Amino acid sequence: MKFGKYIRTVAYPSWADQYVDYKLLKKFLKPFEDGVATQVHEDGFLACLQAEINKVLTHAFFLDVCKDILLLLPMGVCLCLGIAASTRHYDFAQI
User: Is 54 in the same domain as 64?
Assistant: First the structure.
């Protein structure tokens, strides 16, 4: 099974729209596989790729999940990560 299809089959349902759309990216790569890609194709692929990356990394969803995970971490792990033990606060702008 190919990776993109595998991700769609195992995706957590309520998070499914937050995953990278590999099928869409693959469509943008088709002209490169066929040897007919132009600068327009490259620009389109890069724009699509950047949008998918932004969807995952800059979306509030990602930050909310990270915060939820931090709340579940044992105190020792938080201290090792430099997270204030009393507040379990982390500056997500560093990501």
Answer: no
